[in-house]
Specification:
This protein is of the alpha+beta class. It has three domains: 2-99, Rossmann fold (3-Layer(aba) Sandwich), CATH 3.40.50; 119-182, 2-Layer Sandwich (Dna Ligase, domain 1); 185-320, ATP-grasp fold, B domain (D-amino Acid Aminotransferase, Chain A, domain 1). It contains eleven helices and 13 strands. The strands form three sheets. Strands 8, 9, 10, 11, 12 and 13 form a six-stranded antiparallel beta sheet that branches. A four-stranded antiparallel beta sheet has the order 4-7-5-6, covered by helices on one side. The longest helix is centred in the C-terminal third of the chain and has 20 residues, at 311-330. The termini are close together.
């Protein structure tokens, strides 16, 4: 099959490009698709010729990992172009990608559906900070960022003095409202969900920070996935699949992730970050419908390794689920068979 691979190339270590993919990751995905028997052509999302290149080439299908260009809903940029050109693609739609970028909107929908998430409030710059309905410790988060951008060792605050300092830093850096959320003390886990008819939740993977040195643990905020942890120390942690939780809790975690996957309109693949408190109650913290696919450092490839599967398996499984969905939803045989 003639497949296009849409992506953003990481050229610097700035926050703006933190979510972009390295040449090594892009090449690994390309080779995995080629190993599946496909012809692959690359399309960089920041190219001013993206629309015209896709329109002229007309790939049969697009494997999308692009983070987009600008603005809070940037991940929806490439899918919007593909929808306009009527080119089918892997992963979530414009709606799901835009929605998931807004952490507060996502949490409001999950709360409405009865899916457990921490209590939160949105605070605006120069506003009156009243957090009477929230209990310390609290964590301060940017609303429209992924890859733990903006999350530091000081993001978890235990009193009003520290949270006011952190709020001012966040306002100054992002120039927009921020989210203050009750911090769930407990076990950090991540759950992959794949497929559509039906979707399936993979075993939860536990992230154990205990192997980190005191200095590294301090930099990671004593057990949270800070940006620095993800970029510098993630390979030093221990990972358990399935997580070291009672079977009843594991089943509960998988159930709420599948429900969230469905209600947020995620397609083909998604990854959920959760915390399980000391009483065994799970809370969804984040949803990533465009999870990282760095072969060495990203959580989804790590989950596949712990399942005894390869990176090539992961990439071609994503493509398989996307093709299956496309054929079922359109209910016709394409002019050029997907083979």
């Amino acid at each position: 099959m003639k497949i296009g691979l849409t992506y953003n190339l990481k050229r610097s270590n700035t926050d703006r490009e933190a979510e972009f993919d390295s040449p090594e990751t892009i090449d690994a995905i390309k080779k995995a698709l080629e190993a599946g028997g496909h012809r692959v052509k690359l399309y960089e999302a920041t190219s001013p010729l993206l629309f015209y290149s896709l329109a002229l080439d007309r790939p049969q299908f697009v494997f999308n990992i692009a983070e987009g260009k600008n603005g809070p809903y940037r991940e929806a940029f490439v899918p919007a172009i593909l929808d306009e050109l009527k080119i089918p693609y892997s992963g979530s739609s414009v709606l799901a990608l835009a929605l998931s970028m807004d952490k507060t909107a996502t949490n409001e929908i999950l709360k409405y559906a009865g899916i457990p998430t921490p209590r939160f409030e949105v605070l605006k710059p120069n506003g009156h900070y009243k957090m009477e309905n929230l209990a310390f410790p609290l964590i301060v988060k940017p609303i429209f960022e992924g890859s733990s951008i903006g999350i530091t060792s000081k993001s978890v605050c235990h009193n009003e003095e520290t949270i006011n300092i952190e709020l001012q830093k966040m306002f100054q850096k992002f120039k927009r409202p921020v989210m203050v959320e009750e911090f769930i003390e407990g076990t950090e886990i991540t759950v992959g969900v794949m497929g559509n008819y039906p979707a399936m939740a993979l075993p939860p993977m536990e992230i154990d920070f205990s192997p980190l040195s005191k200095r590294e643990l301090k930099a990671s905020g004593y057990g949270i996935q800070t940006y620095r942890f993800k970029t510098e120390y993630s390979t030093k942690a221990n990972y358990y699949l399935p997580a070291r939780l009672p079977q009843e809790t594991i089943l509960k975690v998988q159930d709420i992730c599948l429900r969230a996957f469905k209600i947020l309109r995620v397609r083909d693949i998604g990854r959920f970050d959760l915390r399980v408190d000391k009483e065994g109650n799970p809370y969804i913290l984040e949803i990533n419908p465009l999870p990282g696919l760095d072969p060495e450092h990203s959580d989804f490839p790590r989950i596949y390794r712990l399942m005894g599967k390869s990176f090539e398996d992961l990439v071609n499984d994503i493509l398989h689920f996307a093709l299956e969905r496309h054929l079922i939803e359109n209910k016709f045989e394409p002019e050029q068979p997907f083979s």
